[in-house]
């Protein structure tokens, strides 16, 4: 009988990902000065492995290499091994992902496998290495042997490579200068012209396989559609509406439990990489709400709007059922793997379906969802998806659409109940400020749009949980787990939570939410702005500098910190009249506008903020009692349509506006008169005040150039 392994140093960490590796025979250490000091003292290179809990190939590399005693022996004898959760330390991940891109001349990913000198400088790296030679790749042990040979026998070459790579990183990440920066007025039009040819006109999304949601670019498309920028409006609308339709019908959507998986391995959204991430579902929830608002703005049919809103409400149900912590914050992710297999929790055989549905209903259900005896996935199992319209399936079966729909609605809850008896994928139960900001803001937006106060209340409760437990003396924590806040927050944490606070304010007009937004943005100005250039840095000024202070303005799987912060600064400036916010945003916009227009698929959040800054927003001020029926009717009308760059305020008078924290100029000279009135302005042009919901929607259309 073998004795249990002694845990390594990761056993004392909070991260579920790091704890997954605490029993590995590898003598892992967490990122920190102690590990690098040991590497220097023992004259060893550092092996840095970066991943996250829901990463399938991270699990594969663990099983093949990090659980292997022989491989662990090599690592323990010749290297100092450091394991990093990229979600806990995105600053570390950003630096070494860029280093990998410079080395490999291609994109990175996870697991990220980098080799460093004891002073943190990278000299070689890759992503996944197999346990044995295959896929045209060397085995991981062969890589370790080659690195050790270079370290012991050709140290000068290693240091020369580290010097060269560090110098390349310095060039790539050199701070921008605003001396000659110009902001093109047509940045959005130029960006759309670059992005639209990349759309997959048949399946939606961009390009072929693998296919990611790329929600930030679709956010930009919605702006282009609502404003019909450069005549691209129809193409923008079609691209986003098609993408949402195809994704909802694909296997990337969980047809039983709701929510979207991370991405599709094919071009048709059929077979997903099964992990579910909070950030994807938060962004897609908001996108679906805004797409429904675009349909209403364009005078589209109610059925299409209802279909889009059902995506949002089903995502909400999934998040609240499976991803919500007791304090109202949200967990990070659900794994792709269970029972040692990717997707095992989510896929089906015909026999499993027949066992709960009976042969007759199972035949219909399997026809709708493309389930067959041979399977459409692996091992005779099938991913549920709907490749054919329901009308065609019903006709082929000799049933009416109503009959087929009735069977589907009868079988789905039975299958969900059966699925709940299976071993569940692991859930990463740490809560991250940035991802929570995306989710809480989207939830407030949904609740306000649909007039569902419980959704708004849930968003407010979660937001204030972050304020109460993770914000102390103006310093925000990056994460919370088991009631404990930890880690220093980054730019995206501040930007996302500030936007969520503004969403909650515009849904409730609770001054505490606006106060929180201002506190977060004041911290951005005090701790994240480079005073020399005005650029927005990813880490605060008092944080550890990992080789360099990142100013990355790109989006990745979720909006980047620069785009989030710019959006929040511009929104808060419009609501409060605070000139510092606008000035800081304008200075940073000037630095990044050129790159954003040239790279709309990689900088969508920045491009959208650039358009808000240059085009100006639509200001909607409703004067009246927020609790009165006539005021509520006007607010509901505003929220029912998608209005890009909207600022929404509601107060009784100037004194009320001041008490709420609003710029009193928003209410100056404006009165309700005999009832609530709505004032719509864009730039220096204002519509006549209206007191009727339908008239208000027409006023908004005119303000957007659609009247």
Are there runs of 5+ residues with pLDDT below 50, and where? none
What is the C-level CATH assignment of the largest domain? Mainly Alpha
Q: CATH topology of the largest domain, anyone?
A: Glycosyltransferase
Percent strand equals 5-15%
N-to-C CA distance: 79 Å
Please name the CATH architecture of the largest domain.
Answer: Alpha/alpha barrel
Give the tally of structural domains.
4
Strand order of the largest sheet: 1-3-2-4-5
Helix content: 40-55%
Annotation, overall tally of beta strands: 20
Largest sheet, described in full?
A: 5 strands, mixed
Class derived from helix and strand content: alpha+beta
Describe the structure in your own words:
The longest helix is centred in the middle third of the chain and has 21 residues, at 302-322. The protein folds into 4 domains: 9-172, Glutaredoxin; 209-337 and 428-615, Alpha/alpha barrel (Glycosyltransferase), CATH 1.50.10; 346-421, no CATH class; 618-703, Glutaredoxin (3-Layer(aba) Sandwich), CATH 3.40.30.10. It has a 5-stranded mixed sheet with strand order 1-3-2-4-5, with helices on both faces. Strands 13, 14, 15 and 16 form a 4-stranded antiparallel sheet that branches. Strands 18-17-19-20 form a 4-stranded mixed sheet, sandwiched between helices. It contains 26 helices and 20 strands. It has 707 residues and is of the alpha+beta class. The radius of gyration is 26 Å and the shape is globular.
